[in-house]
From TrEMBL, chain A:
PANTHER family: MEMBRANE PROTEIN (PTHR41309:SF2), MEMBRANE PROTEIN-RELATED (PTHR41309). InterPro entries: ABC2_memb-like. Signal peptide: none annotated. The keyword Zinc-finger does not apply. Keywords: Membrane, Transmembrane, Transmembrane helix. It holds the Pfam family ABC2_membrane_5. The keyword Transmembrane helix applies. This is ABC-2 transporter permease. The chain crosses the membrane at residues 12-31, 37-58, 79-99, 119-138, 150-170, 182-203.
Automatic annotation (TrEMBL), chain B:
This is GntR family transcriptional regulator. It comes from the Bacteria. The keyword Transcription regulation applies. PROSITE patterns: HTH_GNTR (PS50949). CDD domains: WHTH_GntR.
From TrEMBL, chain C:
This is ABC transporter ATP-binding protein. The lineage of its organism: Bacteria, Bacillati, Bacillota, Bacilli, Bacillales. Pfam families: ABC_tran. Keywords: ATP-binding, Nucleotide-binding, Transport. Signal peptide: none annotated. It comes from Paenibacillus profundus. Residues 4-229 form the ABC transporter domain.
Length: 208, 127, 288
């Protein structure tokens, strides 16, 4: 398991700059614009990094290599799910850091105060997206992966406005402790776990 | 010990190797107690199948020319030269018997065969 | 003892079928898996490794069942193919860092020695390596984790003759330990003419034979002679026969019978694996 995570870090190491680039580009685009755009920075960066990490695995049909190693296919899928948790947390925390930085250096932007929900919320959205994305990735070929990457990006662009509004609504109406929010969170976690089992079954059956 | 394998030879590889090792032993190049390369080492050196070298050693063992000790490898047998010579004479006799049988079929007389042998001997000696 | 036991392995594709293949690979020997391209060699190997799921049949490797004990099996085997699907953008060193921790018996010193011997620079990226260099790297990895069984899928197809000979030496080195075994699929049979102990021949999805190479060469013979010697009965004795205006050349699988039949009227030659493969794959009469 640890070895598989290390594998992803080694594979991603040379494209670390890409993650940083996503972060800067999205920050530059979103931060000055909208009051709660910090969420979008986190979500976009996380998802871009995740789809980059999956692309690296299929670019040269590397699953054919991974299955020659002494690990089960279930472990391979497990590690990718762990990786998506790490990526979403790191990206969201980084976006939060940038937000703090922006508020202290440019007070003119008049950014709103952020709460814990502003970190958990975007992370949960990323995980929900990953829950749909990863099973597709593990059942599709290289070409299929490129296509769903495109589809997901369009989806993300389309979702930008509703997400921002939703996060705003939560902030303005002070809904942070609303029990339905917690129910949604639990739902997402369940979705993520179910998604993992589906992906593991799909990948175990897949022919390489 | 020197072994040369010819791809042009009609003899199977195992026989070529066997003949050469046997010759080395009979000529005294290999002495009683000398160790032979392991089956796997010989296969590697000659770039041939392990099965082939295994067969060579098994046949040589049957001829009592070599001894194989488990875990220690194979050695030229302590059997003395007289024994080896005796073995070869036995083989030669068998071949001679074959010749006699064949010549009878061709209705050659004893003298005919001896004369013919003489002729071949002389041919062998003249370069 | 057998290091691989395949029983009734079947996989059906629209284009072709691997049909009820049963095959034993013996411990302590090099087994060559031969056959023309596209007859199921790779599919068979992929099924052994669990990359393709068979429709029916079973595979046991080193006494363990596939795919149930897949992880244990893969600790103990080395896999080398003409394309190992490494991460192209990484260097050899990074790739090694990725692979090494997975193996319990990784020998770093051995690995570095092989890199030096194969003249592979750790700083080189995988994408810069030629096909042959990739095979060398895969071989270095396989030999550095003390694999007891080496499974090689067409490893020599991208290699120059010089390294092919070198590789045969490396394989023979591994075979100095009689617990080790190798299975080696190829359509370049000259490599196997030399070092293989057993030959398994796959044609059109079926196993034609799996025999010691030496007995194979003693059993089969190439007969060459004048076409006037042939009539329909005699033609039927051949596995494959090639007739031209200047005579015929054919493969028989009973050398003794051919010797009795043709006596001095035809020439009997030792076949090569290529001869056996060619005449069996073509079958019947070949007109040239």
């Amino acid at each position: 398991m640890l070895n598989l995570l290390r594998k992803d870090f080694i594979a991603l190491k040379s494209s670390l700059w890409m993650g940083l680039m996503f972060l800067t580009v999205f920050s530059a685009v979103f931060i000055p614009k909208h009051s709660s755009s910090v969420h979008l920075v986190g979500i976009y960066t996380a998802f871009a990094t995740l789809s980059h990490a999956t692309m690296i695995d299929v670019k040269n049909q590397n699953h054919n290599f991974l299955v020659t190693l002494p690990i089960s296919r279930k472990n391979i899928v497990q590690a990718k799910y762990m990786m998506s948790i790490i990526i979403s947390l790191v990206s969201v925390l980084a976006s939060y850091g940038i937000h703090m930085f922006a508020t202290s250096v440019f007070p003119v932007l008049n950014k709103p105060e952020l709460t814990v929900m502003d970190i958990i919320g975007p992370a949960a959205i990323v995980l929900a997206l990953a829950s749909i994305y990863l099973p597709l990735f593990y059942s599709l070929s290289k070409k299929g992966t490129s296509i769903i990457n495109g589809v997901f990006f369009i989806l993300l662009l389309a979702l930008a406005q509703p997400t921002a509004m939703f996060m705003n609504m939560i902030n303005e109406n002070r809904l942070h402790s609303d029990p339905t929010l917690y129910l949604i969170l639990i739902g997402i976690i369940l979705l993520f776990i179910v998604s993992y089992y589906i992906a593991a079954v799909l990948f175990t059956k897949k022919e390489l | 010990m020197k072994i040369i394998i010819s791809n042009a030879s009609s003899d199977p590889i195992y026989m070529q190797i066997m003949n050469q090792i046997r010759q080395s032993i009979l000529s005294g190049e290999l002495r009683a107690g000398d160790s032979l390369p392991s089956i796997r080492q010989l296969a590697k050196d000659l770039q041939i199948s392990v099965i082939t070298t295994k067969r060579v050693y098994e046949e040589l063992e049957k001829e009592k020319l070599i001894d194989s000790v488990v875990g220690k490898g194979s050695f030229v047998s302590g059997a003395n030269k007289d024994f080896i010579r005796e073995q070869r004479m036995k083989q030669l006799e068998e071949k001679m018997l074959d010749i006699i049988r064949e010549s009878k079929e061709l209705s050659m007389s004893q003298q005919d065969v001896i004369d013919h042998m003489k002729l071949l001997f002389e041919e062998e000696h003249t370069p | 003892m057998n290091v691989i036991e395949i029983r009734n392995l079947t996989k059906t594709y629209p284009e072709f079928t691997v049909d009820q293949v049963s095959l034993d690979v013996k411990q302590g020997y090099i087994t060559g898996l031969i056959g023309p391209n596209g007859v199921g060699k790779s599919t068979l190997i992929k099924m052994m490794l669990g990359m393709i799921r068979p429709d029916s049949g079973s595979v046991k490797i080193l006494g363990c069942k596939m795919p149930a004990q897949e992880v244990d099996i893969k600790q103990r085997i080395g896999i080398v193919s003409d394309d190992c699907f490494y991460y192209e953008h990484l260097t050899i060193r990074d790739m090694k860092k990725m692979i090494a921790p997975f193996y319990k018996k990784w020998d770093e010193q051995k690995f570095n020695r092989y890199l030096e011997q194969f003249e592979l620079s750790p700083k080189k990226k995988i994408e810069q390596l030629s096909k042959g260099m990739k095979v060398k790297f895969a071989l270095a990895v396989a030999l550095s984790h003390e694999a007891e069984l080496l499974i090689m899928d067409e490893p020599t197809s991208g290699l120059d003759p010089v390294f092919r000979r070198e590789m045969l030496d490396l394989l023979a080195d591994m075979m100095q330990n009689e617990r080790n075994s190798i299975i080696f699929s190829t359509h370049i049979t000259t490599d196997l003419d030399r070092i293989a102990d057993y030959i398994a021949f796959i044609n059109r999805g079926k196993l034609v034979f799996n025999e010691a190479k030496d007995t194979l060469f003693e059993r089969y013979a190439i007969v060459k002679g004048d076409s006037e010697l042939l009539d329909s009965d005699i033609r039927n004795k051949f596995i494959g026969i090639r007739e031209t205006t200047v005579g015929f050349e054919g493969l028989v699988d009973n050398r003794q019978e051919a010797e009795d039949l043709f006596g001095n009227y035809a020439l009997l030659d030792k076949p090569t694996l290529e001869d056996i493969m060619y005449f069996t794959a073509k079958g019947g009469r070949i007109h040239a």
